[in-house]
Amino acid sequence: MTTILMASHQDPVDLWRAALAAEMPELEFRAHPDPGDPAEVDYALVYWAPHGLIASLPNVKAVLSIAAGCDHVLADPDLPPGLPIVRMVDDYLAAMMAEYAVYGVLHFHRNMHFYRQEQLKSQWSRGWPLYTPDTAVGILGLGAIGTTCAAKLGELGFQVHGWSRGPKSVAGVTCHHGADGLEEMAAQCRYLVCVLPLTPETQGIINTRLIKAMPQGGYIINIARGGHHVDEDILAGLDSGHLGGVFLDVHNEEPLPPAHPFWLHEKVWMTPHVAGELIPRSCAKSVVRNIRRIEAGEEVPDLFDKARGY
Ligand code: NAP
Asked: Rounded to two decimals, what is the model's pTM?
């Protein structure tokens, strides 16, 4: 008998139970706070699990993240070192993230922010559009999600650039890498979309330096983690006019405190960390695929790499 324990304060337990049962009927499903005998738990399926919960499972073989990023697992100070952590890599998650990236870019590209303001003043103001094939979008992060965003934006006719840690070749994408590559890319892009993992190297990467590297009036869409952007630098960029607007799904503090200046800023568009939801009927396939690989002693490509930090 293989047993999985789910612990998440926001994911739907009933949908996960049903989705996992459909994919792997022989899997015993339990949910925190009712783990049964902790010694029987083989896998912990978690999103921001209570600290110490994973350490209380003496025979757990791996942590399965209910998120593409593993920051929520690593935040547990009692996490047993050396325990494998498996990222969530899911086509539907990548597709949802790409939908949001496309929406954010088109929102600004088709001047919806301007037309909304004009509507609220009962003003019939017509602007002149930019020519999409002359317009460049830069994707920060060219992984599972970034390459999907790049493909969808490319289908719309944008010039697509992408930035990764190491050199990469992606069809239809002008690829950049390393510190110099980021500024080289930013200088050409009216829109930047961030889909990086949060690591010590990428923390605070959306800062005044990057904003100034962009052309005047550029836009930033951050759908990765709030830790990537420096709030004060975004506000300074917006207020100086160098940044035309931002679309933020993620924040340095979540929930964003009611007094935060982003809430009422006319150039800030935001959502409460909903860019990519983990839909159980799709993600359960990835979870079961990885359990079967671990049980068979096979390599797990979606393993979190502690040395790289993602
Ligand atoms: P992934 O497949 O691991 O890809 C990460 C990409 O980032 C890779 O291209 C990697 O470069 C690049 N990268 C990492 N560190 C870098 C650095 N220091 N400099 C330049 N590039 C760097 O990750 P993913 O599955 O696409 O997910 C990306 C992130 O999206 C997650 O970590 C998560 O935080 C976020 N996310 C947010 C939501 C939401 O709802 N807001 C939902 C899902 C995911 P290489 O190719 O060279 O390795």
From this structure: 0.96
